[in-house]
Amino acid sequence: MSTPHLAKHQQLGLTDAQVLSMYTLMLTARKFDERATLIQRSGKTAFHISSIGQETAQVAAAFALEKQHDYFLPYYRDYALVLSVGMTVRELMLATFLKGEDINGGRQMPGHFGYRKHHIVTGSSPVSTQVPHAVGIALAAVMKQEDRVAFVTFGEGSSNQGDVHEGFNFAGIFKLPVIFMCENNQYAISIPAHRQVAGRIVDRAAGYGFPGVRVDGNDALEVYGAVKEARNRALRGAGPTLIEAMMYRIPPHSTADDDMQYRTRDEVEYHKEQDGIESFRRYLFECGVLNEELDRSVNEDVMREVNEAAKYADKAPYPEPESALRHVYAKDGGA
Amino acid sequence: MAILTYLEAIRAGMSEEMQRDEGVFVLGEDVGKGGVLNATKGMRDRFGERRVLDTPLSESAIVGVAIGAAMVGMRPIAEIQFADFIFPATNQIISEAAKIRYRSNNDWFCPIVIRVPYGATGGGGLYHSQCPESVFFGTPGLKIVAPSTAYDAKGLLKASVRDDDPVLYFEHKKCYLYISDDVPDEDYTVPIGKAAVKREGDDITVIAYGMAVHLALKAAEQLEKEGISVHVLDLRTLHPLDQSAIFEATAKTGRILIVHEDNKTGGIGAEIAAIIAEHLLYQLDAPILRFCPPDVPAVGMAPTLEKFFLPNVDTLKEAMRRLAEM
Q: Do the interacting molecules here have an ipTM over 0.90?
């Protein structure tokens, strides 16, 4: 039954305050990302890996899940996801600057998340190893009879790793409460999706006996709806869902990559026009959640937060050199 | 106190830990029916199919899923059917399990046990006989144990389950039924990181682990009749090595022979030799010797090939005699 008097987000169960908060988080991730790139270009940091073009889907997915309850296994571009489930810009900046106060003590490359308090599970650089971990977390939830899901992301390049397929099969057999979301940003460093992936990733779900859904990753509400449904399915014991969110990696692979060696400026410009944040902004204007004045103040708040975070992290001290020796085992000051 | 086989002791250790702690569970290929080597025999009837979980044939998922479960409070025991099949899980073990505590600055940790049945047992060929412990040795963040007795098998299994870090538990398949000894009924653990002197002697020291300990003890017994007194140290834990026990055993005789079934080059014996050379070179009365299979990819299937490949009491005795006479 249609309810024409309700805006689309309200039909999906999202309040005006929630969608405004989603927009704010998308902007926060974008502004953080732009700043982190500038900081790298200025020579203050060695490396940045960007999520520009992927924020919309990440924020939307997070809002369909339960913070500090469900488990999140992000991949290295998920700044908007981790911001949406509890990390702060200051914490992301501390990681960018590799400072001692960083939750990972400056040990990890930027973009390698982990934060137990927020149920953000620690990750590494060999891609897709987090997929079986998500399956194991889902298995533990079933064994402990807890109503929670594990949500794991990976890129379309990583979808070719054995761990993805082993994880899919394992989760499919035991109908585990896990949501697999492929952030298909069209490029695995320099290799376009059509040279990286045979067939469609979404269709791989059928091979493991669970549904696959392809969504427009630039459409926040479509992503939200798909993840919400996947979560409901998982919680009622119906098993995993694969979501393939289609998007486009606007920047080069990382600050160490020159993307003009393998794609054209026109192609990138075309995709900038499809920006999910901009279309979400337009949507919020259309349904009256956002207006010029509010948008300006949201932008100002975000910029202030990013400025303060960058300033703070820049000044923060590096980790003590000898801290390198700690936490190899529990007895070195561990649990 | 009862006499148990090494295999029964492993099973008793797992069962007692599962009884003690709801979070402990076993997962692996065919573990429900008891496993192809019978380690989990009868456990599904007792604990149910969820806690004795038959997995797909997917070693990376077996370990990866165990890691995920461990990070959220479970205490999984993952069984790799044969050590030879552990390699698909190596990325999960070395890149993930070993580094989770360190990379997260102690925010996360990964208390898994990976049981790895290893070693040649007669007719296993290249891919049912290997000793891959050296692949994982020297990976900080991992612990590696390799018991040689039923007592240690149970005590180390229990210690591994209770340990807050990932433990690779290497169980020698030839010990399963060949080795039995007194195992207490009451709860006990054998501390990880502690070697054990299995025999006191004055002339030469043999350092070994797993099945090689029994070869060394038998050889030592025979050499005693020839007037050679042999000191035998069972490492029990391979990583971290019990350096002080190695130093004591070295100082005792000044003549060291290290024996293992893993390849000589890059094996654990190489590290032990280096540690001794670094710290106690001037207490040595002879070069440090290693007695190991030849550096061929793995053991051949034909009985003649296997016999040639493996150390046995006679060949080991010869090496020990050579050292005593140096």
A: yes
